[in-house]
Write a structure and sequence with these properties.
single chain, 945 residues, alpha+beta, DUSP-like, Ubiquitin-like (UB roll), 6-stranded mixed sheet, 21 helices, Papain-like_cys_pep_sf, hydrolase, cysteine-type deubiquitinase activity, Ubiquitin_UBP8/5, USP
């Protein structure tokens, strides 16, 4: 006896998945597999399984009829289709594995499902492609679990043959495994192959076979050199030197695990050569002896000159993150002066928020050593020990975030040097409509009453923060201090979106309209931009809809829908409709055409949707007849009528005037069915409808009534149509035969453009560098608070998702700008390698300062920055610093210091920027010279007031 498998109800499916999910999540461990599933399908499934909740809330029980084919029941989703997550391989390209799109975002493009959840859904729905990903240990402590959605993609370079190959491999695999796979790919004898870290196409280090790729700091899309060596030279094998890019001499191949070529960073190129595996120089000795002297010898700069401030910091493991930040601070003129004078009297030993002065003393001591004459690199051990004591997060010898350290240092030094010994309690008063200047000064005075130090004097500014309640429009204004600005790196602050505009009154042909909107904007921004662009009348509004599969997938009616939920390859339509009275529905005209199988018999497959649906409002106050609906449809289609169409008995006209002539010819007909002055039972109305229809060609149309039955609209024009009370839409199908298509030019509804089409022109535009000004504008732009950061509105007495706008109000002497290169999501942490074009001179912030009473120009110039090379949780930090008494830029790479040209200061590695105010009044005058600052013979350098 065959057992018929019982199909589960949506509710049963939901509960099954919920129970499996709870059990699976609780037991997740390293090595488990998760599966990607497209957000679109997941959302459709969620809507399907949650569809009975509304009725359950209403009467306390799930209504049974919804699962029995009731008209309002949502259809069960079709099979899982993950194709929108992957690049479609070229046909016949069998070598290409399934590659995910590079820019997918969890929660927006895909969801991660535990294996058990995926197995169950796959058993029910099938589909694919199947996209499994492993759970790995992540984070600096290696205790966080993360799904490795994007395993490393590495570029293998085979030398001396100069062949290339791309490989995908988990960052948790060992170098030995990479070595083995590389030998398999290129069919090599493993005995004769060594593998090099080939970062920036330079040999950095033979790689330790036992290390993982993660531990070796190997990053996404990094180059790996696979070198075949000959076995006939002394000491084993001579390594082949490509373009002489490696060290200056023969590097004898040793068992890679014994090689000490890589320093702790794994990315800094070792200076000098080691022979026969004898790599016994300690790292600091090696860097100090072979690096700095050689660097300066090659550039012709005296290594024992009188210039102070050119002293390196030794790397104590992975302390380049600390070294780069410290060098920027000690080369800040105000700090150099302050800590070299008698600052001890300002140390605040009783501040509970400080470190009893010990951090300030340790920093001051280190700064003095770095400004002392002589060039011997300093080992910052005492400072590192103090730092670890007060900030355990920076203890040990792991890599950390240079900006996080900088934020801790500025805050810690401020509290250790706070001149306020007893902080008064001050309650901020609401602005209550008072002038901004008065409120800002009050906030600043309250801040200074509690916080007064060299750090505040030099680095702290003030911005204006405006919150607006979306419900009651309550405006709250505060003025908050800042120590640095953290700017987002959006590839663009705006986004170009194309939407096709349709009219319902036959007055114009559909037209694609491209507008520019804020990238993080809402639907209301898009509707407003479209309205301005298409000259929307004050009596009209736009109804926005997403079109999928030639049907309306959803109306975007909520003005707060985020534009980021609309993908570049979506198709949007906007329908111009009158601002009608409330009691109206939308007639959706869905086009179908006959599709035939190509075969001997030419057998018909039936009518399939095509083109773009049209929408027209229809009043529910009166009785609607089949003839009325025909008139509305004729009116909507009239602009596409071909001039030579005989069925309309109209005057022959040119294509250019077709739309206008047709619109005027049908105006009377369309008014007949929309004229509210004539009730439907008025005999004149009936006569009017009948006479107009007599002149019109009958279109094969069917209406779906409230019982999901099809009504033929071509017969019985006077018969009334019952409209469903529950649905807002009335579905009408028009079937386009080949003959009918000859009368209408339907190409206007056939090819709906994508929201954003990446053609050659836009690709070029997208590679233009992002400017620092754009980043600042993105930071200051008004946007809604994230849901987890809701604001308590004092008027509504409820938490609201207010919109927040920032403005700069008071700028500091030294402006520190942090570029937010690192982003975090549950599955992965990643780094943005975006190049930001930042000004070195004349960084003009005048127009960004909201305090218009301050009439002077706000000009800044760059004097220091930190750089980060490589990827998350690893990589290498350096600093570029301008020595002001020399008017010359230097690269500080731990112990190595070398002059660089000003044009080389800008790179995609720039991470934290240090700007100092340029005083117009002192622009061409003297500066204080105290070993740290002097402006002899240089432009745009100024003293502190």
């Amino acid at each position: 006896m065959t057992v018929v498998k019982k199909e589960l109800t949506p509710e049963e499916e939901k509960l099954t998945i919920r129970d499996i999910s709870i059990a699976a999540e609780a037991q997740t461990k390293q090595g488990d597999t998760f599966f990607l599933i497209t957000q679109r399908w997941w959302q459709e499934w969620l809507e399907y399984v949650n569809q009975n909740q509304a009725s359950a809330v209403n009467d306390g029980s799930a209504s049974e009829h919804q699962f029995l084919g009731g008209s309002s029941a949502l259809k069960r989703p079709s099979s899982i289709n993950n194709s929108d997550l992957i690049y479609q391989a070229a046909s016949g390209d069998s070598n290409v594995g399934i590659e995910l799109h590079d820019t997918l975002v969890e929660g927006t493009d895909y969801i991660l499902l535990p294996q058990e959840v995926w197995n169950q859904l796959y058993e029910w729905y099938a589909g694919g492609p199947i996209l499994p990903r492993k759970v790995i240990n992540s984070g600096l402590s290696q205790t966080e679990l993360a799904v490795e959605v994007y395993p490393l993609r590495l570029q293998l370079h085979l030398m001396p043959k100069d062949e290339r190959s791309t490989i995908r491999i988990s960052k948790k695999e060992t170098i030995r495994e990479l070595h083995k796979k590389a030998c398999e790919i290129f069919s090599l004898n493993p005995e004769l192959v060594c593998i090099w870290d080939y970062f920036s196409h330079q040999k950095h280090a033979l790689m330790d076979m036992e290390k993982t790729l993660d531990d070796a700091n190997i990053q996404m899309d990094q180059d790996i050199l696979v070198e075949v060596v000959n076995s006939n030279s002394a000491g084993g094998m001579n390594s082949f030197h490509e373009n002489g890019a490696a060290d200056n001499g023969t590097v004898a191949l040793v068992e890679p695990s014994q090689s000490n070529f890589s320093n702790a960073e794994g990315l800094s190129q070792s200076k000098g050569s080691t022979r026969n595996g004898n790599a016994e120089l300690s790292q600091s000795q090696h860097l100090a002896s072979s690096g700095i002297e050689k660097t300066y010898a090659s550039t012709g700069v005296s290594t024992r000159g009188s210039t102070c401030g050119l002293t390196g910091l030794m790397n104590l493991g992975n302390t380049c993150f600390m070294n780069s930040a410290i060098q920027c601070l000690v080369h800040t003129p105000e700090f150099a002066r302050y800590f070299r004078e008698d600052y001890y009297q300002e140390i605040n030993r009783q501040n509970p928020l400080g470190m009893v002065g010990e951090l300030a003393l340790a920093f001051g001591d280190l700064l003095r050593k770095l400004w002392a004459p002589g060039r011997t690199p300093v080992a910052p051990r005492p400072f590192k020990a103090k730092l670890a004591r007060f900030a355990p997060q920076f203890s040990g010898y792991n890599q950390h975030d240079s900006q996080e350290l900088l934020a801790f240092l500025l805050d810690g030094l401020h509290e250790d040097l706070n001149r306020v010994k007893h902080k008064p309690y001050i309650k901020s008063k609401d602005a209550d409509g008072r002038p901004d200047e008065e409120v800002a000064d009050e906030y600043w005075a309250n801040h200074i009453a509690r916080n007064d130090s060299i750090i505040v004097d030099v680095c702290q500014g003030q911005y204006k923060s405006t919150l607006v309640c979306p419900v009651c429009n309550k405006v709250s204004v505060t003025f908050d201090p800042f120590m640095y600005l953290s700017l987002p790196l959006q590839s663009a602050t705006t986004r170009s979106m194309t939407v096709t505009i349709f009219t319902c009154d036959g007055s114009a042909l559909p037209a694609a309209c491209t507008v520019t909107v804020p990238k993080q904007g809402r639907c209301r921004d898009l509707i407003q931009a479209l309205g301005n662009s298409c000259s929307l009348k004050h009596t009209e509004k736009l109804l926005l809809a997403e079109i999928r599969g030639h049907l309306i997938h959803r109306f975007l009616e909520d003005p707060l829908i985020s534009l980021s939920s609309i993908k570049d390859d979506d198709h949007l339509a906007a329908y111009k409709i009158p601002k009608l009275a409330k009691n109206s529905k939308f007639l959706q005209l869905i086009h179908r055409r006959e599709e035939r199988e190509i075969g001997i018999s030419q057998s018909s497959v039936g009518w399939k949707p095509y083109g773009t649906p049209l929408v027209s409002p229809i009043s529910c106050d009166d009785v609607i007849t089949r003839g009325d609906i025909q008139l509305i449809v004729h009116r909507m289609l009239s602009p596409m009528l071909r001039s030579e169409n005989p069925g309309f008995n109209c005057v022959s006209r040119s294509k250019t005037s077709s739309s206008a002539a047709n619109a005027s010819r049908l105006a009377a007909a369309s008014e007949a069915c929309m004229d509210s002055s004539l009730p439907n039972d008025d005999p004149r109305q009936k006569d009017m409808s009948s006479s107009k229809l007599a002149n019109l060609e009958k279109l094969p149309m069917q209406l779906l009534d409230e019982n999901n039955a099809c009504i033929d609209l071509t017969v019985g024009e006077d018969k009334s149509v019952k409209l469903s009370s529950s649905s807002m839409s009335i579905l009408v199908f028009v079937d386009w035969s080949q003959k009918l298509l000859e009368n209408y030019d339907t190409r206007y509804i056939e090819n709906l453009p994508e929201v954003t089409k990446y053609g050659p022109a836009t690709k070029k535009a997208r590679t233009e560098p992002l400017s620092l000004y754009s980043c600042l504008e993105a930071f200051l732009r008004e946007e809604p608070l994230v849901p987890e950061d809701m604001w308590y509105c004092p008027t509504c007495k409820e938490r609201r998702q207010a919109s927040k706008k920032l403005d700069l109000w008071r700028l500091p002497e030294v402006l520190v700008i942090h570029l937010k290169r690192f982003s975090y999501s549950r599955s992965m942490k990643h780094k943005l390698e975006t190049f930001v074009n930042f000004p070195i001179h004349d960084f003009d912030l005048t127009k960004y300062v909201a305090n218009k009473n301050n009439s002077r120009r706000q000009l800044y110039e760059l004097y220091a920055l930190t750089n980060h090379y490589g990827g998350m949780g690893s990589g290498h930090y350096t600093a570029h610093i301008k020595l002001l008494d020399e008017n010359r830029w230097y690269n500080f790479d731990d112990s190595h210091i070398s002059p660089i040209n000003e044009e080389d200061v800008k790179s995609a590695a720039a991470y934290v920027l240090f700007y100092r105010r340029v005083r117009a009044d002192h622009h061409h005058h003297h500066s204080v010279s105290n070993g740290a600052v002097s402006s002899a013979g240089q432009h745009n350098i100024s003293s502190r007031k």
